[in-house]
Each structure stands twice: as C-alpha cells, then as structure tokens.
C-alpha cells in the first residue's frame, strides 16, 4: 500500500492519542466538582444534610434515591 | 501547551454527558419496569405497619414514580457520564494498548464495579420501610465513604498493575493487582460497621427483588454508557477506523490513505 510508509508514526499503538495531564486538569477540576454537586443533589440533599429547607427535593427524588442505592430515610 | 488537546478534552466531556443522558434514559426504563412495582409494594408494607402517618404527602406517588424518578436517573446519568468522560481522558493510552472503544468499555466496567457494586455489597440498596430515619446521617456517611474508598482503591489497583507490568509481565501484574484490590476491599468490609435495619416480617422475596432491580438499573446504565460513549469517542478519535468498520470500505480506505 502506498500509505504504509507514512503510517508507522500512528500504527504501532492501538491508542489514537494520550492526552497530557495539563490539558485535562482544568476541565477535571471545574466539571468534576460541578458533577459531584449534581450527584449530591440526587443522592443526599435534604436527607442526611440540607442546604435548602423543606423536604420537596427529598420527596421529588424519593424513588430515584431508593432505586439508585442511596440511603434515603 | 497544545490547544488541540484541550479541545479534545472538551469534546469528550460533552460526549460523555450526552452518552450519560442516553444511558440514564435506558436505565430509567428498567427502573420504571422492574423497580417501581417493588417500591410500591414496600410502601404498602410500610403503611400497613405504620402507627400514624403524618398528613398529606408533599409530592404524590404518581409524580414520584414518573417525573421524580426521571429527574433522578437522568441527572445521575449526566453527572456520572461527565465524570467518566474525564476519567476516560486520563485512562486513554495509559492503561495499556487499547483503542478508543475498548478503553470506554473497560472504564465503564470498572466504574460499575467501583462506583456501585463494591459499595453495594457492603451497604446494599434498600426499599422504603427498610432503614431507621434516625440513622440516616450515619448511613449516608458510611455509604459515601465506602464509595470513595472503593474508587480510590480501584485507581490504586490500575496504577499498581501498570507499575508491576514491566517486572511481572501483563498477566501476573494483573493478577497481583487484582489480589491487592480483593484484600483491601475485604479489609474495608471487615473494618467498617455493618448495617441491618430490615424490619421484622419484611418480605425477604421483595427485598431480594428490589436489590436485583437496583443492580439491573446500574448494569443497564454502565453497559449502555460504555457502548454509546465508546462509539462517540471512537468516531472522534479514530475517524478512519470508525468509517472502515462501519462497512463503508471504499470511503474508509480513502480516508485512511489521506491520513
């Protein structure tokens, strides 16, 4: 094949890219925290701890919490 | 720093959240079909055994079992999809010679085990009526602690396996890392306090079926996440191979030649 001579730079590894840690870190820190906040609201808000008063969040997410394995009440 | 890499991370993150949304939607179907009848049965048991139930419910059962359940599963899917995509950025090319799609599938399997199955075996999912409201704080702390430990131990296992590989070879390095994981998780199980708050006369069959349904939800979520995210990441990172494997032989060959 004509392109086989040009390929070896990519071909030896099955992996297309390795992303440098420095490029990942800003995204990982900012979006990682954001995603964890979302998980906290689904899994624990108005259960063990409350940032908002009342129990509407808890009641709204009641079935999801039980079925996703979070301690609910 | 190469800005292309940062763009790739962003593109993978967006794809992870979309794949998580799709996986959450499929898990929602499983939760609705397999889980809701068990939640209803457990609530019926709870009400028949409660001495006094305080007044009107702020959210009706009809809303809890549909819109409420959907909110929970979709947000859970998007959030874990985003986190999994970020973990994927770290794992890509660092866990061995795996392509874009196998890496996605391996990561999903690891996430299923580390985020759900390992904590579940110590602190399994409970239906309504199981669990003392007075211990919710303690149970939540222990559950999240177990989840955090499990994820950290899984990451340590992968790093250990990679470190041992040059000395022991891939097979024995993997076995040794696996033994490390089993022993450390076993120690965590042994040292953390157990919780059993199943009320007397709660139907054992119902508890078993509820927990199986909870496992089925997670299995659906992570399997579909691995497949969808792997497909999207493969198209992004290996466009030539993706085109060729999609059966468009001539187009694929042309693209490969141009690469």
TrEMBL record, chain A:
Keywords: Membrane, Transmembrane, Transmembrane helix. InterPro entries: CbtB_put. The chain crosses the membrane at residues 24-43. The keyword Membrane applies. This is Probable cobalt transporter subunit (CbtB). It comes from Actinacidiphila glaucinigra. The lineage of its organism: Bacteria, Bacillati, Actinomycetota, Actinomycetes, Kitasatosporales.
UniProtKB/TrEMBL annotation, chain B:
The keyword Transmembrane helix applies. The chain crosses the membrane at residues 12-34, 73-92, 104-121, 141-160, 172-192, 212-233. Pfam families: CbtA. It comes from Actinacidiphila glaucinigra. InterPro entries: CbtA_put. This is Probable cobalt transporter subunit (CbtA). Keywords: Membrane, Transmembrane, Transmembrane helix.
